[in-house]
Amino acid sequence: MAGIVIALPKRIYVSACLICCVYAFNMTNKFATLNLKKTLIGFYSMQYCVSLCAGFLEHLSTHNYYSRGFMGVTQYRRYALTGGIGSGKSTVARMFRDLGAVIIDADAISRELMDPGQEVLARTVNLFGESVLNADGTLNRARLAERIFAHDAERKKLNAIVHPKVRARASEIVDDAVNSPNFSGIIIDDIPLLVETQRAAEFDAVIAVQTDLPIRLERLSKYRNMSYAEAQARISAQATDQQRADIARWVITNNGSREDTQAQVQKVWNELRAEV
């Protein structure tokens, strides 16, 4: 059964606490008409209730909860995983998935939304024209990439079409995850453009994957058949490693062997598990 994620802005929690304070003040005034002993008892009782309420609301504001019926509640943590093109972020995401994390892959969702017949593809064609389509009606991703990475304005327009739909699909994945009997309590959103979309504050913490530039260029040339000039242009169009590191609690360096990267992922995973 679908549930509701409790994720209200902190200002709402603060407002609720202020309302409680006003209520306590009014109750104290009522107790003031009684004798001193009863007044003190009433005052400290109200003070305790307000403190208890404030603490509970603060706990809600710093944790994610998912309601599954009248009494069924699942607590979870949600993190963002980010890294530039060619950094090996997808490999790191698979490692976290193997350890038990629920991975929300923004790139995979975006590709799904661009399938023939999807609203997002239709709106993309309306924006860029049929030149971004192959003869069979599927999206020519390379042609679209050439256009958006060369023009910031067009890239922003495309993001405005795609990103809201990606978030909606991600919410559906969260619904499915928390209803799973084997849910680990950890959800990791794989978001390449986390810095660019300014979404870091939506998550409990950020994990960044970094790889030295020569290695990234080599990977893009070898596995994606890009020229070095094209690969460099794609990298330059994204946020820098320093910008990602600035918003991250953990930075995984993916320059060495798979075993070395796996060891770093395991260390981060142990810390994530300790927070749930």
TrEMBL record:
| Alphabetical keyword list | ATP-binding, Coenzyme A biosynthesis, Cytoplasm, Kinase, Membrane, Nucleotide-binding, Transferase, Transmembrane, Transmembrane helix
One biological process term in Gene Ontology: coenzyme A biosynthetic process
Recorded GO molecular functions are: ATP binding; dephospho-CoA kinase activity
Q: Which InterPro entries match?
A: Depp_CoAkinase, P-loop_NTPase
Does Kinase count among this protein's keywords? yes
Q: In which pathway does it act?
A: Cofactor biosynthesis; coenzyme A biosynthesis; CoA from (R)-pantothenate: step 5/5
The EC designation for this entry is 2.7.1.24
Q: What superkingdom heads the lineage?
A: Bacteria
Localization annotation: Cytoplasm
What is catalyzed by this enzyme?
Answer: 3'-dephospho-CoA + ATP = ADP + CoA + H(+)
**Transmembrane segments annotated in the record for this chain:** 12-29
Q: Which GO terms describe its cellular component?
A: cytoplasm
Q: What is its main location?
A: cytoplasm
Residues noted as binding ATP in the record, renumbered to the chain: 86-91
**PANTHER family tied to this protein:** BIFUNCTIONAL COENZYME A SYNTHASE-RELATED, DEPHOSPHO-COA KINASE-RELATED
Please explain the role this protein plays, according to its UniProt record: Catalyzes the phosphorylation of the 3'-hydroxyl group of dephosphocoenzyme A to form coenzyme A.
Q: Which NCBIfam families match?
A: dephospho-CoA kinase, PRK03333.1
Q: Which family does it belong to?
A: Belongs to the CoaE family.
Under the heading HAMAP family, the entry gives: Dephospho_CoA_kinase (MF_00376)
Q: What's the protein here called?
A: Dephospho-CoA kinase
Organism of origin? Rothia dentocariosa
Q: Which gene encodes it?
A: coaE
